[in-house]
Amino acid sequence: MIIDIAEYVAVVVIGYILGSIPFGVLISRRSTGTDITQVGSGKIGMTNVLRTAGKKAAALALILDMAKGALPVIFAGLIFSDNHHAIAQVVAALTAIAGHSWSVFLRFKGGRGVATFIGSLLALYWPAAVVGGGIMIIVAYVSRYMSLGSISGAVTAFVMLLILNILRAHPPIEYVIYAMLCAIFIYVMHRDNILRLVSGTERRIGEKVKADNSP
Fold it and tell me: Would you say residue 124 lies in a domain?
């Protein structure tokens, strides 16, 4: 029992610390000298990096933000037995997203957790990550709104996992609950974007922002 608690504590700490690493901030600062927490949306994810530091920097931020979602899940799966590994993996994924969204290195500010969520899904159940990520890319490309693509992708991943679980396919119920919580979380984190979408003032993908714009 004590060993299990210690292992869960390790999973939480590692997940949160990895998730807290502000790759978007570090990459933008190295590329352009700009603090992206003071520009555009003020978020540290790929979309704001794209607006401030360009495509290469944004691609690198995306990959690293996905990695910090996947690695804690892999770690949890390695240290827990089959009876607990699904719960431990979900805990690891949730704490990684929490770290990204409320980073200890940024005074508990951060991003919206989309890339970290997709990365965690790659480690949990990769078909859901591929389908959800694919929908995200398609919707974002067609609409030119990353926020709309992000919400669509998260909801699609949840619906896919739910259907597969009902059909008694591989995904355990813990993964379904995780995807549902993340879809709700991503929707809530994009509530300001939703208001701008409705009013027609939402920024499109690649739209540049000035460095003196406040988030």
Answer: yes
